[in-house]
Amino acid sequence: MQRIDTTKVLRLEYHEEPGTGLGPTLEFYSLLAENLKTIEFPIGQGGKMVTMWRDDVPDHQLFPRAIDLATVDREILIEVCRLFQMTGIFMAKSIVDNRLIDMPMSPLMWDLIFGKEVNLFSLKPLGDIYKLFQEL
What we know:
Largest sheet: 2 strands, antiparallel
Helix content: 40-55%
Distance between the termini: 37 Å
Shape: globular
Mean pLDDT: 85
Low-confidence stretches: none
Number of strands: 2
Strand order of the largest sheet: 1-2
Structural class: mainly alpha
Radius of gyration: 17 Å
Number of domains: 2
Oligomer: single chain
Order of helices and strands: HEEHHH
């Protein structure tokens, strides 16, 4: 697992553009967050292009979309996994650097990240999955 250097703060400067420091850095964080939320892959039913996030979570909170491993190409799966890893590193770095980003993770996702024990009732915000398990 990679460690994030907490002593170094990320500061960006765009080539041939005026300004350094906080302005371009916050713009970078904002653009990257938006791209991570909207990038699409052919991982939906029948190879449909969809984001890696579920679109039925309340308040547009982010929770990973289920992927059928039998129908999705291996290279696509590797790319999605790398993007999830990068999202985690990006979020960790934004926390360490005290930067606010527009990546509203669902509380269930945070529980899973921190290894908190979850149960059937934890899935309630996910709607369809909760109803499916409730019927079982």
